[in-house]
């Protein structure tokens, strides 16, 4: 497939869209969330059994004492523009990105 994406100077560019974050590797640091301008992902609480408790919104981040740790979860993948900023700041390399040329339209 020929790349149909170009930068302003005409250079070829292939967006790589965030599709998943490995919850076992993610440390919930929030760096990716801070650099994402599209709100593609959010911090979610995890209990001792590894079950996702819900979005950590700052009000009841304890989840009635069930919170074990927090991880980042891709909850709006369609908002991703493929800039790769999140991948550049992730200290654990726990994200999966797929090139625009391999994603079915």
Automatic annotation (TrEMBL):
Keywords: 4Fe-4S, Electron transport, Iron, Iron-sulfur, Metal-binding, Nitrogen fixation, Plasmid, Repeat, Transport. Residues 17-46, 70-100 form the 4Fe-4S ferredoxin-type domain. It comes from the Bacteria. Its cofactor is [4Fe-4S] cluster. The keyword Chloroplast does not apply. The keyword Iron-sulfur applies. Pfam families: Fer4_7 (PF12838). Ferredoxins are iron-sulfur proteins that transfer electrons in a wide variety of metabolic reactions. PANTHER family: ADENYLYLSULFATE REDUCTASE, BETA SUBUNIT (PTHR43687), FERREDOXIN III (PTHR43687:SF1). This is Ferredoxin III.
